[in-house]
From TrEMBL:
<dbReference type="InterPro" id="IPR002502">
    <property type="entry name" value="Amidase_domain"/>
</dbReference>
<dbReference type="GO" id="GO:0016045">
    <property type="term" value="P:detection of bacterium"/>
</dbReference>
<feature type="domain" description="N-acetylmuramoyl-L-alanine amidase">
    <location>
        <begin position="364"/>
        <end position="504"/>
    </location>
</feature>
<dbReference type="GO" id="GO:0008270">
    <property type="term" value="F:zinc ion binding"/>
</dbReference>
<dbReference type="GO" id="GO:0009253">
    <property type="term" value="P:peptidoglycan catabolic process"/>
</dbReference>
<keyword id="KW-0391">Immunity</keyword>
<dbReference type="InterPro" id="IPR036505">
    <property type="entry name" value="Amidase/PGRP_sf"/>
</dbReference>
<feature type="domain" description="Peptidoglycan recognition protein family">
    <location>
        <begin position="352"/>
        <end position="498"/>
    </location>
</feature>
<dbReference type="InterPro" id="IPR015510">
    <property type="entry name" value="PGRP"/>
</dbReference>
<dbReference type="GO" id="GO:0002376">
    <property type="term" value="P:immune system process"/>
</dbReference>
<dbReference type="GO" id="GO:0050727">
    <property type="term" value="P:regulation of inflammatory response"/>
</dbReference>
<dbReference type="GO" id="GO:0050830">
    <property type="term" value="P:defense response to Gram-positive bacterium"/>
</dbReference>
<dbReference type="InterPro" id="IPR006619">
    <property type="entry name" value="PGRP_domain_met/bac"/>
</dbReference>
<dbReference type="GO" id="GO:0032827">
    <property type="term" value="P:negative regulation of natural killer cell differentiation involved in immune response"/>
</dbReference>
<feature type="signal peptide">
    <location>
        <begin position="1"/>
        <end position="22"/>
    </location>
</feature>
<dbReference type="GO" id="GO:0016019">
    <property type="term" value="F:peptidoglycan immune receptor activity"/>
</dbReference>
<comment type="similarity">
    <text>Belongs to the N-acetylmuramoyl-L-alanine amidase 2 family.</text>
</comment>
Length: 522
């Protein structure tokens, strides 16, 4: 059956299935299993594309409801018989659990654990896949009132594609909205339905909301072997949680891929297994581990600002009574869009993806942690030496973290794993003591700097370029922006302060060429 048809059936559960309890673990593999079953067994029904838009919009009781309806195809006829679908009750229950994204009582719903250790919201992922399957992406905005100049090729209310099929739109209209740019006339529906609407609305502070504006938080699964409940680390987090942003970015990246490749397109179950596995079409760079880097290549802050602005304008026209958009001027929308796009680009895309302690199963800190006086002025670089091999998977890196923590706590008698952060070769940074607590990494200097270790033995070889870039650029620039590290921080190797070979001859040789490297601490 067609990929669209499969997605359509999936989305149908949001509306028609009876409430169920998922007994399947809330992991990406369960979602892939649902897709695979539908792709294998579903009767080949020619389901209308428009149905998926209807389902998406029916699923959206909240604020972005009219957008999906307008941007993804609108329904034109009664939907097909849903009783014919072949999913088992447990798979139906799973889809029911994960298809709505919500934050209730400090828990985030509609998210699953992916094989790379990241948590991903399913709804924006599905919306991105759907937008990508529909191909052409530029959609003209409807005109709000007769007073607005109506250009010669005026689009009637309702969607119409503004560009030939297959034309990429992500880099058109890259003007900054606050730079007296003219009002947006079109949006990229892929960015609009995945990211732009939620980004814009979150930063557009509504009159009465108790959640924080801005980017949200990570969370912890009740158990990693059979995840069911995801509790946020900051209970007052905004809707733009890390899991939401992950799902939105994955939806945008995969939708972009689907909109560009020629038909026949791969089954969605294959595409997702590759993306959350070894890489799409054999490309190890195109997988969930590197979503932030790929996201930075997909869209710039200025392009995204234009898209957020266009999406907010669209939403205002579609739903003039929208509580957050009523009487908000074009200039205000443009300002919010610029700010939101900048925050997302710098504080999410430009920051390392850090797995919190609970994700690798850290044992509790022993005793009472000592707070750091932030911002710190130093970054001390280590290699772990043991384990000697770089870790390249979430499972491998997590096991390394646990064994180092056990060694530091039980054999060395320390309170916790010594390092502030540990850098894997899987695209992730693992939280050790983190930004706020004094570590045990560089004797005599632990309260002056963060200790960051690469997993591996770098006496004769070097970490991957992605891992190196994390410590050379991404982590320090993100920490400086957040006020955790001084912008003029100094970078040193462990051996410069303590009698040790750490961080290895090869790595230390390279560190000496890095911008913030200093020969002596003072
Ligand atoms: C919006 O603006 C109009 C005209 O300025 C005003 O009459 C109306 O009360 C405003 N509505 C709200 C909800 O602020
Ligand atoms: C680290 O690498 C060096 C150079 O290859 C090697 O001599 C040493 O035995 C390695 N140490 C460990 C613990 O693997």
């Amino acid at each position: 059956m067609t990929a669209q048809g499969v997605l359509w059936i999936l989305l149908a559960f949001l509306v028609w299935s009876k409430p169920g309890t998922a007994s399947l673990p809330l992991v990406m593999d369960s979602v892939i299993q649902v897709l695979a079953e539908l792709e294998q067994k579903a009767p080949v029904t020619e389901v209308s594309l428009t149905a998926s838009a209807r389902l998406l919009s029916a699923q959206d009781s909240g604020t972005s409801n009219p957008l999906h309806h307008f941007l993804l195809e609108t329904p034109s006829h009664k939907t097909a018989d849903l009783d014919a679908h072949p999913l088992s009750p447990e798979l139906q229950g799973l889809m029911k659990m994960v298809a709505q994204h919500e934050i209730r009582g400090g828990q985030e719903h509609g998210v699953v654990l992916a094989p790379d250790g990241s948590t991903v919201a399913v709804k924006p992922l599905l919306a991105g896949l759907e937008a990508g399957l529909q191909g052409h992406r530029v959609v003209n905005l409807p005109l709000d009132s007769p007073a607005t100049p109506w250009d010669a090729e005026a689009t009637p209310p309702g969607r119409r594609d503004a560009s030939p099929e297959g034309t990429s739109s992500s880099d058109t209209e890259a003007t900054l909205p606050n730079d007296k740019a003219k009002s947006p006339t079109a949006v990229d529906r892929l960015l609009a339905v995945t990211l732009a609407a939620d980004l814009g609305l979150t930063f557009l502070q509504p009159p009465q909301t108790q959640s924080h504006p801005g980017l949200g938080t990570e969370g912890c699964w009740d158990q990693l072997s059979d995840p069911q409940i995801f509790t946020l680390l900051d209970p007052k987090a905004s809707m733009l949680t890390v899991a939401f942003l992950n799902g939105a970015l994955d939806g945008a990246l995969l939708g972009d891929y689907l909109s560009r490749i020629p038909e026949p397109r791969p089954p969605l179950s294959h595409l997702l297994s590759q993306y959350y596995g070894a890489g799409v079409a054999g490309n190890p760079g195109f997988r969930s581990n590197f979503r932030r880097q790929n996201g930075a290549a997909l869209t710039s802050a200025s392009t995204l600002a234009q898209q957020v602005w266009g999406t907010l304008v669209l939403l205002q026209r579609l739903k003039p009574a929208h509580t957050q958009l009523r009487n908000v001027s074009q200039e205000q929308l443009a300002q919010v869009a610029t700010y939101a796009a900048k925050e997302f680009t710098e504080a999410f895309l430009g920051c390392p993806a850090i797995h919190p302690r609970c994700r690798w199963g850290a044992a509790p800190y022993r005793g009472r942690p000592k707070p750091l006086q932030l911002p710190l002025g130093f970054l001390y670089v280590h290699h772990t030496y043991v384990p000697a091999l770089p870790c390249t998977t979430f499972t491998g890196c997590s096991a390394n973290m646990l064994s180092m923590q056990r060694f530091h706590q039980d054999t060395r008698g320390w309170d916790d794993i010594g390092y502030s952060f540990v850098v894997g070769s899987d695209g992730y940074v693992y939280e050790g003591r983190g930004w706020h607590w004094v570590g045990a990494h560089t004797l005599g200097h632990n309260s002056r700097g963060f200790g960051v270790a690469f997993v591996g033995n770098y006496t004769a070889t070097l970490p991957t370029e992605a891992a190196l870039r994390m410590v050379r650029e991404v982590l320090p620039s993100c920490a400086s922006r957040a006020g955790l590290l001084r912008p003029d921080y100094k970078l040193l190797g462990h051996r410069q302060l303590v009698a040790t070979d750490c961080p290895g001859d090869a790595l230390f040789g390279l560190l000496r060429t890095w911008p913030h490297f200093t020969e002596t601490e003072n």
